[in-house]
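Fold this sequence, please.
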Amino acid sequence: MHIDNAGKHPTRTTLRLSALAIALAMGAAATPAFAHIDLQRAGTHVAMFEQGPAGRDTKISPCGNTDEAVATGAAYTYQPGETITISLAEYVPHPGYFRIAFDDDGYDDFVSPRWIVPIEPENRAGGCPIDDEDQCRVGDYLTDGDFFNNETVLMDNLNSHTSATAQRSYTWEVTLPDVECDNCTLQIIQVMMDPAGTAHGVYNTTPGDENDVYHQCIAMTLSESAVPGQAANAAARALAPAAD
């Protein structure tokens, strides 16, 4: 079949390209949506671990896929009690909020929020809770969430937003604890509150493609001998975006 002089019949090449386009489109539609926050592209810090394909490793608590993801080697040294600037990019908008926590010895003390109070309850078609596994509660999303749920949390319920009011990036001034440590971790999470549907069902924190918390962590040392302005190590400086 090669009758295309009048534009009425496609060539074999055109048919092959059309079939390929359809297959690619179907594959894209079948691909689940993954985590979409990133420290590195925001410019102030680089996370401890790479995000993995389409950011999917950031779904795994507490700092991403620490078993399989590639460590970046990025680390930062600050003085105890220093106030630092942290920026985070949200490159695919989700309704929800952010939280910042600090562990002075590794990253095993962080506790994910155990329930949500959705910012848009009317968009949860199944109600709240949807079923016995859904840790969703009715109340005021500004006050009734699982905020400051253990001693590691420094700042909570930051920048609550809908998908429509999400920003491309967020910046916070964070005062670090007044302690010295050489294996500290600062964790930034986004708690999602998406409407229930094919990509999001009940609120959960179980590692996997459908959980509702994204994780980014920053490796730190807090030392009295730290020099302000020289916080990032060589690996972090190499990975940081070039200044405009």
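The chain is about 10% helix and 25% strand. Helices lie at 12-30, 234-239.
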